[in-house]
Amino acid sequence: MTSSARPLLNRRLAEFGTTIFAEMSALAVRTGSINLGQGFPDTDGPEEIREAAVRALREGRGNQYPPGPGIPELRTAITAHQLRRYGLSYDPDTEVLVTAGATEAIAAALLALLEPGDEVIAFEPYYDSYAACIAMAGGTRVPVTLRAHEGGFRLDLDELRDAVTDRTRLLLINTPHNPTGTVLTREELTAIAELAVERDLLVVTDEVYEHLVFDEAGHLPLATFPGMRERTVSIGSAGKTFSFTGWKVGWVTAAEGLVAAVRSAKQFLTYVASGPFQYAVAEALALPDSYFSAFREDMLAKRDLLAAGLTEAGFQVFRPAGTYFITTDIRPLGESDGFAFCRALPDRAGVVAIPNAVFYDHREAGAPYVRFAFCKQTAVLEEAVRRLKALAG
Ligand code: PMP
Ligand code: GLN
Fold first, then answer.
1. Sorting pLDDT into bands at 50, 70 and 90, what band is 215?
2. Other residues' Cβ atoms within 10 Å of the Cβ of residue 145
3. Helical segments of the chain, H only
4. CB of 39 closer than 6 A to ligand 2?
5. Which ligand has the shortest distance to the CA of 354?
6. I need a surface site. Which of 95, 148, 193, 362 has the fewest CB within 10 A?
7. Residue 352 Cα to ligand 2 middle (Å)
8. Given pLDDT bands bounded at 50, 70 and 90, which one contains residue 393?
9. pTM for this one?
């Protein structure tokens, strides 16, 4: 018998409930709505990569536990990718760790690097697992709010500097940023790097949307900035870049000591995962540049389609510079509560979206914002837009 006086779920996790993505995807299924909520593509990634997974499975590669740090082929492919794209050089044996998606990489990094009471600064709105993992690690999250401007959501560097205290251990950065689509500029990244060096902070950077930056400059990894390589844990994932979100292959690149620390936590979470898929992702990372540019172009066209449709439907649209999400303001529609709006949207329009408020500590700051995913087939987006326009009418 358990004591009825004591809740089963511990205090660290009690505030989190069910992730909004599960809730909203279930709502989409229940109501037969178009799901522009949870960020997953509605078509699979490249056929030859899917076949590479089938081949690995058939040939018995990865069907038993792969090595703890990941198969050598994938670790080498990850380091080759970091070198080719960003000029970042890592040792595949000691400076790479394959994880069960970026989700596990985030969890392992925070569990490994935080002592109870350490403060972690994260941009608000933040991806939901950040808050939960900081809590599981006994850390304290310190949100710095990205504020809405005409052109999008931006970081206030003074607020960031002011948020650092003697207890700050780590900056948890996400660029391109989910859910706002903000891409940090070179100037902002330079300032973040200087702050990290000056205050001797560790940095965990979530770069799962690295191949979805829409302007020419492309993605700028924080680890390339002066003084950052030795203090930065960079996190990537195959899920978004190759449209296989169910495979759960992610990775960490960092200096040896950091990787060793993250591995210490990771080995007791999943130990290993996704054996045959690791072989396929090794091949995916070696795809020619044309794959990555075609992927980006395709998403760019979809961004423009959905942004135009949402604007016509009466939303204020913040055009994302990266990711496959569009954050909107619903106030021009006469609405102010994103939660209520998203819960009613299936009935009103047969579409599901995500209320950004769940990604805020200051819920009222996020209340009027709603996120739509555009990683869907063109015809699906067109139908969603047609339905959403009914709201304006
Ligand atoms: N970080 C961000 C910002 C995300 O949007 C997601 C969802 N892809 C993740 C991490 C988790 O990635 P994965 O599916 O590889 O665990
Ligand atoms: N990253 C996806 C999103 O932001 C969801 C992933 C998940 O459901 N955990 O929509």
1. confident
2. 17
3. 20-31, 47-58, 72-86, 101-113, 128-136, 157-163, 186-198, 238-241, 256-266, 275-285, 289-312, 338-349, 363-366, 378-392
4. yes
5. 2
6. 362
7. 14
8. low
9. 0.96
